[in-house]
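Researcher: Here's my situation. A collaborator sent me these components and asked whether they could plausibly form a single complex. I don't have experimental data yet, so a predicted model of the whole assembly would be a useful starting point for our discussion.
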Amino acid sequence: MRPTDLSLAQARLALDARQISARELTQAYLDAIAALNPRLNAYITVTAEAALTAADAADQKLAAGQGGPLEGIPLGIKDLFCTAGTRTTAASRILGDFTPPYESTITRQLLRDGAVFLGKLNLDEFAMGSSNATSAFGPVENPWSRRNDPDTRLVPGGSSGGSAAAVAARLALGATATDTGGSIRQPAAFCGVAGIKPTYGRCSRFGVVAFASSLDQAGPIARDVMDCAVLLRSMSGFDPQDSTSVDMAVPDFAAAVGRGVRGMRIGIPREYRMAGMPAEIEALWQQGIAWLRDAGASIVDVSLPHTKYALPTYYIVAPAEASSNLARYDGVRFGARVPGADLTELYEKTRAAGFGAEVQRRIMIGTYVLSAGYYDAYYLKAQQVRTLIKRDFDLAWAQCDALLTPATPSAAFGLDEKQDDPVAMYLNDIFTVTANLAGLPGMAVPAGLDGQGLPLGLQIIGQPFDEEGVFAVAGAVERAAGFSARPGVIA
Amino acid sequence: MTYMIGDWELVIGLEVHAQVTSQAKLFSGAATAFGASPNSQVSFIDAGFPGMLPSINAECVAQAVRTGLGLNAQINLWSRFDRKNYFYADLPQGYQISQFAHPIVGTGEIEITLDDGTKKTIGITRLHLEQDAGKSQHDQHPSKSFIDLNRSGVALMEIVSEPDMRSPEEAGAYVAKLRQILRYLGTCDGNMDEGSMRADVNVSVRKPGEGFRTRCEIKNVNSVKFVMQAVEVEARRQIDVWESGEEVHQETRLFDTARGVTRSMRSKEDAHDYRYFPDPDLPPLVLDAGWVEQLKASLPELPDARRARYVAMGLTPYDAHVLTLDRETAVFFETMACGRDAKLAANWLTGDYFAALNRLKRDIADPPVSAEHMGELLDLIADKTLSGTIAKQVFEHMLSGEGAPAAIVEARGLKQVTDTGAIEAAIRAVMEANADKLAEYRSGKEKLFGFFVGQVMKAMAGKGNPAAVNELLKAMLAG
């Protein structure tokens, strides 16, 4: 068995038993990155030397029997997390060679627990996108390809495309990711790996480059449900530096993974059965329902009547917040600067050159919906609808403990597809945005393959701060699905 | 008694920005001291770095609530921070965090007193918390602007008045009274010359009985005197515009203190669209009613209440006014007068002590003689150890740093003699030495009484208790 074959949980046991050293494990991942990253482009920055130094330190701790929960575990970090001393780009030209002098709370906690960082993972610019095609550092390729069309390069999904592709191709044992409208769950589903966006407020946003503050939430992407549970525990926790983080105890998520679903009520939201949904997606959903029923859950038909407004609501709220959050990238204090004759010209030239087309589009949409005379009709109305969407869920929780839905409306698509049609691209988020708008935990689990041999995922949405319930359902789906397919490109 | 310029009435409202007295900024832990070297008090939050988030400083919230309570204002237990979006080089985030729709403090009022003694109540519309921006310096380099972010993120209270003022004097009295209250509360140091308090002055004019006409806003006026001047010159400018048959346009203006004119800064058409929206990084600010009650209970006594109390203690309204002008003087007075004759204390403080401060160019906050020592001096007068005249001498010694009055009296042998035996002995000696004068006195020349008093006091080196000397002398001279 090669080191990269071990799951995170297995690797941690092997490290403790000294069956493998952290240095060997890290070196194996660095070798995999050297071999496959030139093709996949999952990493923007690889910090090989620092990783090996950290691995050696981990080996010393392990030898002394002082290993933390993630001691010696090689992880990739989405390049939206500020990492002290390591360039942080948000996949945008505008950040230039910005190297933060500070560490995000989440990466600080992962380091505290002994993790080894391999480097910074590619993403859509400022996490805006569903295909990883908007990155200033080029697109990421999905390690999976179509059975009948192996030459068409597919997207890994987005915005955490680098995270999902790296985990799927075994260029990292696990990865951090962020999810504003589906950016953990959609790429996890496209790449056949697991990913969870926890409840809003579970993980600190401090030190994570902001896209849309009221929707952004970080979480892990990993090989399986158990690995996600282990990573999420390290990432979670109250942070006084993030006023929206919530002061609640962090449970042992891993203990919930094998808990089973007997007696649980699983809601099936009827509004998620969209017209024109591919039969394969519908079939997978029915299969998931059957698995959970067989595992002892009761299946409940529920209604979330405002679902159809979720996507338009999201595409007002998220750009509005983004237009304000991205104002700080002005060429004055850090990052790239294009000189101008006066301050206004400096702003215009810097931002025109620094931001890509999709980011510019969203800044313009956001600026428009907040403008005098339009605020009430767009932003205020969207916030009202958002309240109704939240209420839909509150009412549903009277009938069920968790919801089961498809993760995405399709499998991964080609790198050249949908790129000229923003609305078609935005539809990728149709099943995932609701959890962001309502602040709920949502998880994608690989559940099967489509006719082309591409992975498809199911989504579990849970009650606020009931990640344990989500892990229990996800664990049951995972066991029933027995998903063992592997991508064509893999270390 | 209405103030008019010709047949025009003035309408004035003020927005005062008061820097909250606190160790740290509103949303970061960076320090706030005045006069630090540029960019030495800046956290990554204040500089708007990627991923940085605000977290509110509870002390700044407490200060805003205290101020609201001091303005007899409604405290809103639920308030919210909004973002005011605009681009400028000294605004690192690209937005200012402020309270637009839901301020922490609602309506209140301030009572002002004018020079002729009339009182007037000025309505407070609201008070809200917001961040200050940094400072741009355009005169340091021919082609570059320098940015100092020390002020970036400093907590400000914006205190908005109703358009209730009708004269420059009222506007000046309002600013002075507001500053007095803030200083009493300890929520803003009120130092307008350091920029910790500044006023945006809204002025319009109208004919009596009319509704409001268009107003202009004069930005960043930084002294009481300038507020009064700005009101007057702007009102006169507007009156000229109206009387020449034209219209006043709503705009933001600057007061040129050197030339005594206001100048247009930007018109309404150029106004920014600030795209206010609730700051998603900050949950609503929810205050506990019990906590507000605690702050209320621990509020210091404010100038109006203090003045009334002093009058009740027997002080003249004028003395009570002078002694309550600032909190340091009032505290000094009360320490000095504690358990003593308040009137005597007030006379000493407003008389000899204030004169000494002027002479020495000292401030009551940095007193040459402590309030405790002044109190002890009053005690020595009260127990007749010192006569008024000797007490003034002792006070001079205290000013030269000789320490406690009792020690000075002891060291310099200035104790007043009230021992009748000693006084009688001195009188006998004087009577013997001046047998001729005694005879003249006894034969009816009573004017000589003063001569004997002087001789006795001289013999006693001034330390005889004047009343006792008078009494005994009168008896002994009569034979």
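Model: Some features of this prediction you could bring to your collaborator: Chain B has a mean pLDDT of 93. The interface with chain A takes residues 44, 47-56, 83, 85, 87-89, 92-95, 145, 147, 273, 275-277, 280-283 of chain B (CB under 8 Å).
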